[in-house]
Amino acid sequence: MTAPLAELAARANELRRQIRRANYQYYVLDQPEISDREYDLMFRELRDIEGAHPELRTPDSPTLRVGAPPQSQLAKHEHLVPMLSLANAFNDDELREWEERLKRLVDDAIARDGYTAELKIDGAAVSLTYENGVLVTGSTRGNGRIGEEVTPNLRTVRDVPLRLDTDDPPRLVEIRGEVYMPFDRFERLNEARVAAEEPVFANPRNAAAGSLRQLDPGITAQRPLRFFGYAVSAPRNVELPFATQWELLDTLVQWGVPVEPHRTKCASLGDVIAFVETVESRVRAELNFGIDGVVVKVNSLALEDELGTIGGREPRWAIARKFAPDIAETRLLAIEVNVGRTGVVTPFAMLEPVDIGGAVVRLATLHNEDYIRAKDLRVGDWVQVKRAGEVIPQVIGPIPERRTGDEKAWHMPKRCPRCNTPLEREEEEAGVYCPNVACPGRQLEGLVHFASRGAMDIRGLSYARIQQLIETGLVRDAADLFTLRAEQLVPLEGFGEKSAENLIAALEEAKTRPLSRLINALGIRHVGTAAAQLLARQFCTLDDLADATAEQIGAVRGIGDIIARSVESYFDNHTTTKLIEKLRKAGVNFTEPRAATAGSSLAGATVVITGTLPTMSRTEATELVESQGGHVVNSVSKSTTFLVAGMDAGSKLAKAQALGIEVIDEAELLRRMGQQP
Ligand code: IVH
Questions:
Q1: 390 and 326 in contact (C-beta within 8 Å)?
Q2: CA distance readout (Å), 668 to 36, 117, 600
Q3: Of the ranges 259-263, 296-300, 603-607, which one carries the lowest mean pLDDT score?
């Protein structure tokens, strides 16, 4: 049943009004009041109504143009070729429908060059005009046909090349891309604005757009803006040196334009869907900038021409596969603290439950007291909360405009909430910790860490089960796990015979893990995966490590003083000695297999390391590569064997890509050295 026409007409009018208002807030004020998703859904509903009933379309309908009219104070710039918007797909079926439509137009021609998939950077779209390789104009998108000229502002963005790095530049091109603000810099900017009593930016995208449209480029220059390029347009009579989108991106890199490194070439839509899944579930959480989807493009540029646009607004040859939104607003009901496995006390936020991307969020991490202070978070505040992939939700910051005056500042308790021991603060550290090794708070978190995937990897031993085992008195420390018997588990709630046996089998298997896993699992302060590997390789048995002095431990390459002292004091403790004897009696392996550590897996390799690696410091990574016979140098050249790139990798990554040098991540590096990532 479709609604009567009058009802549809009224609905279309209402949608137009709301979309116009949202456009104004977004493009002119840089202060959106609704989420992107709400906007997309309204836009789509309006387009569908107008599509089914063209008589209801008004000449000023927002569906007929892209974005908002350019604002008056800045000079106007007419784009050589219009800057298009993108149609959205909210799920894989909508992607498949898109491909079906393409196939109806060009049969199987896409199969030859496939697709490219790129991250959809959540920033402000800009167009950079280069004449004979020199930047002459930079502008915002505006309404797609006419943008605002912000050349002096764009010149201050350090990623934007003032001259293309080529001897043979095209006579005239417009390079399109996105100006964005990295998360960490955005947070710092907002902190500074709070201190200066200036209004904070709602999100990094608004901060980027607002910074770009300053009348004084001096202000833009102080804002931490970055740029990624993703498209090139030129007048018909200018020849460009590429035939596919993939080659276009490579050419941009050669010209010195930064291109987001996670792009991939996909032979089929199946590959695209797999890429989207990896990005949404894993990559997104690791990025230091916002993305709101993956842009899928038909790779062949000749096919792009053939497919053309829909009403001059959206190309047929590209689509944005959007992610579920990951930011929501809710109330901060209380701040409580949790005692971690190493005794570190971390505050966390108790939130009014809120749905973010399909999951209900009640808790969010707050890191430490300084973090709460820096953000000026108060109990009772309305806050913005972000949940990306599987990471613990984060509180981005308060919404000061919504304060009533009843909000309360928060202070760290002086005593441990679990065992009442006075908390201690270590020099130079932001956090406080409970020094009591037997603190029940430490016990639970310690066991959770012990059983976790990077440690002893005990399958089936979830957080809730560990809690249950502690509560029923069956387990007090890690060693107790290994003396459990199936018949003790079966009567417990949630266990059956099969699951009890499975857990016992998983525990049996865990006893054989190499020493490096066990060292990590013990939860010694400051000792993570990388340090545990170095220690296991050096000392070979747990007993030799336990007997070592801080001096001997500190002599291991890659192990500093703080770790050395922490390890010594961990083993120099009665509780630890008892635990180790119990583990030995239970039959847990205390040795490291020697084979994989022979130390020559990278013999002769010249390696460059850039960006922030997920688990290792630059020094640790260097030590590891060198311990395997590799040689670490600072700059990329033709003789580089491979580049290890982490987060925020910059010019070295671009150079490696331009030279065709292999680029790998930390996990692959560990794999090549015969270690588990
Ligand atoms: S292609 C016709 N590629 O998303 C092709 N756009 O919602 C249009 N965006 O206006 C641009 N990352 O501001 C393209 N890798 C990417 C992108 C991207 C972000 C933005 C761009 C565009 C908007 C469309």
A1: no
A2: 36, 22, 16
A3: 603-607
- Helix 515-522 and helix 440-451: axis angle, to 10°? 150
pLDDT (average), residues 446-470: 90
* pLDDT above 90 (res 240): yes
Distance CA 243, CA 434 (A): 62
In this prediction, residue 598 has a pLDDT band, given cuts at 50, 70 and 90, of very low
* ∠ CA 281-282-287, rounded to 5°: 120
The predicted-structure confidence for 314-356, as pLDDT tens digits, reads as follows: 999 999 999 876 788 999 999 999 888 878 898 999 999 998 8
List the residue whose alpha carbon is closest to atom 16 of ligand 1: 120
* E strand segments, 429-471: 432-433
DSSP class per residue in 251-288: HHHHTT----TT-EEESSHHHHHHHHHHIIIIIHHH-S
Q: What is the pLDDT of residue 439?
A: 85
pLDDT bucket at 590, cuts 50 / 70 / 90: very high
Position with higher pLDDT, 537 vs 129: 129
Q: How many Cβ atoms from other residues are within 10 Å of residue 12's Cβ?
A: 22
Q: How many Å apart are CA 43 and CA 48, to the nearest integer?
A: 9
Query: What is the residue with the minimal CA distance to atom 18 of ligand 1?
Result: 120
Give the CA angle between residues 336, 391, 395 to the nearest 5°.
Answer: 45
What is the structure's pLDDT at 521?
95
Answer for the pair 326, 138: CB distance below 8 angstroms, yes or no.
no
Lowest-pLDDT choice from 127-131, 514-518, 558-562: 558-562
- Index of the ligand 1 atom closest to the CA of residue 124: 13
Residue/partner pairs of 304-311 with CB below 8 Å, 24 or more apart: 304/245, 306/105, 306/106, 307/102, 307/105, 307/106, 309/84, 310/87, 311/64
Q: How far is the CA of 313 from the centre of ligand 1 (A)?
A: 13
Concatenating the DSSP letter of every residue in 582-615 gives HHHHTT---B--SGGG-S-TTTT-EEEEESB-SS
Plot region of 629 (φ>0 → left; ψ -120 to 50 → alpha; else → beta): left
DSSP 325: P
Q: Please provide residue 395's backbone torsions phi and psi, each rounded to the nearest 5 degrees.
A: -90, 115
CA of 389 to the centre of ligand 1 (A): 22
Residue minimizing CA distance to atom 12 of ligand 1: 120
- Which atom, in ligand 1's list, is nearest to the CA of 88? 7
Average pLDDT over residues 637-649: 87
**Dist CA 57 CA 50 (whole Å):** 5
Confidence band, pLDDT 50/70/90 cuts, at residue 2: low
Q: Which residues of 404-424 are buried (b: 16+ CB within 10 A; e: fewer)?
A: eeebeebebeeebebeebebe
User: Ligand 1 pocket: which residues have CB below 6 Å?
Assistant: 84-86, 118, 120-121, 125, 178, 230-231, 295, 315, 318, 320
Q: Annotated catalytic, 120?
A: yes
What are residue 549's DSSP bridge partners?
none
Secondary structure (DSSP) of 69-120: PPPTTSPEEE-SS-----EEE-SHHHHHHHHHHHHHHHTTTHHHH-EEEEEE
Tell which atom from ligand 1 comes closest to the C-alpha of 122: 19
Q: For residue 511, what are the contacts with CB-CB under 8 A and spacing of at least 6?
A: 482, 586, 587, 588, 589
